[in-house]
Amino acid sequence: xxxxxxxRAAIFGNKACIYKKDGEDYDIYVRFNKEDRYNKSAVFNxxxxxxxxxxxxxxxxxxxxxxxxxxxxGFSAIKHxxxxxxxxxxxxxxxxxxxxxxxxxxxxxxxxNFRNLPQNINIDYxxxxxxxxxxxxxxxxxxxxxxxLIFFILIFQFNSVSKPGIIMLAIFxxxxxxxxxxxxxxxxxxxxxxxxxxxxxxxxxxxNGVVLLDYTELLIDRRKLQDGISKTAxxxxxxxxETVVKAGKAxxxxxxxxxxxxxxxxxxxxIGLNINFFTLFSEFNxxxxxxxxxxxxxxxxxxxxxxxxxxxxxxxxxxxxxLFFLVTKFKMRIKGQLKTQIQSTT
Length: 346
Description:
The chain has three domains: about 1-65, Multidrug efflux transporter AcrB TolC docking domain, DN and DC subdomains (2-Layer Sandwich); about 80-130, no CATH class; about 130-345, Multidrug efflux transporter AcrB transmembrane domain (Multidrug efflux transporter AcrB transmembrane fold, Up-down Bundle). Helix content is about 65%, strand content about 10%. The chain contains eleven helices and eight strands. It has a two-stranded antiparallel sheet with strand order 1-2. The protein has a two-stranded antiparallel sheet with strand order 3-4. A hairpin with a 6-residue loop joins strand 3 and strand 4. Helix 5 runs antiparallel to helix 6 (about 160-185), helix 6 packs antiparallel against helix 10 (about 295-335) and helix 8 (about 235-270) packs antiparallel against helix 10 (about 295-335).
């Protein structure tokens, strides 16, 4: 009531008027001086004015005559979410820590040992880790959606399911290089940029696989025309093997050049190589240095693509042709042409 308003006015102040200057409004509050504001005697000895209901006269008495002061602790504000009381604990990363997910994981492991938690209390982890989970969900959905679109486009291009399936398998196998490189180097898995790097890596793997299989199909059609074999029939195993090897040799240089140029182009981004080209031409001083803020943001993306390309290059040149040969041999076995070729050879 009146006592609470009096104390609040003494500590926080009451709005007295508005001062206007240059079109801007400034609120003016009146309260105790700083030395009196936190002085208990000054606060509780101030006079409170009221009208006596018995006599009708206006009286003044100190606040301490009608109120008692005790020290206690409490919340500055009580927040609710879905009609439930919420207490939020904030914290920043300590110096040297860059991965919020790893820090939260340590906290979660520590909280597992907390056995005296009341049943009506739930603990949720929000803030940066919550945003990372949202980003992870979005990027994983975008990754698989993109793969499905690529898969259907490749089906229309090759008029087959097996060849797009081989390329999709190569994409997932290339993730071995990504996660293996992160584990070996001890680099953190940054949700946003690492996932963007994986999506970029998938595009490179698809491009190399499509070019290799398309050129293999072209050589197979030429060999069929040369040997007088119908388009619906399969090449003999020996001819098929020679054609696949020939296609792999022909695509060796383009695939290696693609991987080498991409890796070399991403190394400065991964290690944080900085060159000031403005001062290089104006003052003939490049101001070359390593690190900086850019490597924290772009480094995970570059490292993801570099690690993945080491495995993806091997997959494109070795695993993809082998899978293509084995799948074609399996199709021949299903249609009975493989047995016929073996009998004619014997």
